[in-house]
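Quick start: read one record
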Amino acid sequence: MNRKGILAGQVHPFPASIMQTRPSRLVLPVALGIAIVAVSTASILIRLAQQHAPSITIAALRLGFATLFLAPIALARHRTELRALRPRELLLAAVSGAFLAVHFATWISSLEYTTVASSVVLVSTGPLWVALLSPFFLGEKLGRAAMVGLALAVAGGIIIAVGEACTWEGSLHCTALGTTLRGSSLWGNFLALAGAWAVSGYLLLGRHLRATLSLVPYIFLVYGCASIGLLAAAVISHGLVLSLPPVAYGWIVLLALVPQLLGHSTYNWALRYLPAAFVAVTTLGEPVGSAILAYFILDEKPGSFVLSGALLIMAGIYLAARGAGHTQAADS
């Protein structure tokens, strides 16, 4: 199979040096499981922080703190690698950070105009775009099992989202979805879809850059560029508020440490060893993890929609993992 896609250029996504240091089959699923749990805390921490700060401020400070925490390690231990980066690599890292900033800005903003159900359904289409674009930009093709797993996982995410707006009383009632195509909700739906496109670009570029760039320099550059973009957007939109109570800064620092540095960074680490489409599928485990944490922390009991969707997502991730593993085994 030819892996040289548009982004790949002359760099093979799986250089021999990388394949020799590939983690064991046990390490990768455990690490992705930890990432899912870490990222799943984001919705709860954001809800707590939103009691004191605007959403754009939370997003900007989340990435800003993450970059500050990474700076000492990146500059002390990886200065040589950072200095050796070529202009093209710096440009791609900046573009990846811009995609990440757009993802946070558009998806969070979409919740101001449309229903949570509509927003989550549209932003959950990210793995579909990654799977569709990976053959063209990365030369990565998934097998039938991986595609079935992708479909199951996306279907599970849709069921969870629909469950937030629908009830079952002998028949399905989704009155909250009636406003989807009316008024400003159409703009909100577009923003959520833009968030899915942006996260797809972020993962595709990350897959390419992580083939030759170490984790810490990569996330330092990408998170830094994203934070600058979000801070600029917050200033321009007059949404930057820094006079926050200490408890708000506490929640935002936790956002930077847990879902961002532990969760997102683990996804970026995995991009060096797994196809971008598969890593995108694993991100659909977040609604499941969020529902479990909400049950224990916020006393929110998941309904039948959430449980059904969770089963589909877990089955989809399992099938996608097998499909990705078989594809790599055939290509190695």
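Confidence is low (pLDDT under 50) at residues 8-20, 179-183, 328-332.
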